[in-house]
């Protein structure tokens, strides 16, 4: 087993995030982040025991991948690692609360940052976003004062309406990715000697692994559906 620089084995949990479905479907944004997290944990001598992903805004603290990663960190006392700090959260108070609650958080692009530096960086990033938002509102107010029409019907019409087929395809791809990720969790349990759908369901629940719908309680039926989708 790998060991940290202090000689004590240390576990790490990876977290990646993109904001849009398009980025998630392409896989490019997530893959680049995963590569960065894996390289960083290897350099630190940590054991990367799990990886979680979200396709959601960094302002959403309830996204399933984020919550599942926190649950695994609590279970193992692991470090939460992301490629960049804003991949974990865009809220300074959320990061501060994580640190207050005893979580260890690290970002691959700031390898030497300690908890204090993390707090400062998050606060500065949030302040910059607030300033950008205020400058945007000021520019819109100035444009309105000049008589520029803002919003409303500009006469644009899309060439095609919403595509039900594209939406269905996006949902199918998301379900397949979730099934693949969860199948890996199930296979890991089987190698540890956990067999039977009911036993696997209990183990997944105890380890804080989120179900396909994002909740934390597994049943043997949920496990069967995941395995059936993976086989299909």
Automatic annotation (TrEMBL):
Give the UniProt keywords, A-Z: DNA recombination, DNA-binding
Which ranges carry the Resolvase/invertase-type recombinase catalytic domain?
11-147
Q: Which PROSITE patterns match?
A: RECOMBINASES_3
Q: Which SUPFAM superfamilies match?
A: Resolvase-like
Q: Which InterPro entries match?
A: Resolv_N, Resolvase-like_N_sf, SSR_resolvase
Q: Name one Pfam family in it.
A: Resolvase
The record's section on Gene3D superfamilies has:
Resolvase, N-terminal catalytic domain (3.40.50.1390)
Q: Can you tell which superkingdom this protein's organism belongs to?
A: Bacteria
Matching entries from PANTHER family are given as:
DNA-INVERTASE FROM LAMBDOID PROPHAGE, SERINE RECOMBINASE PINE-RELATED
Protein name stated in the entry: Recombinase family protein
Organism listed in the record: Paeniroseomonas aquatica
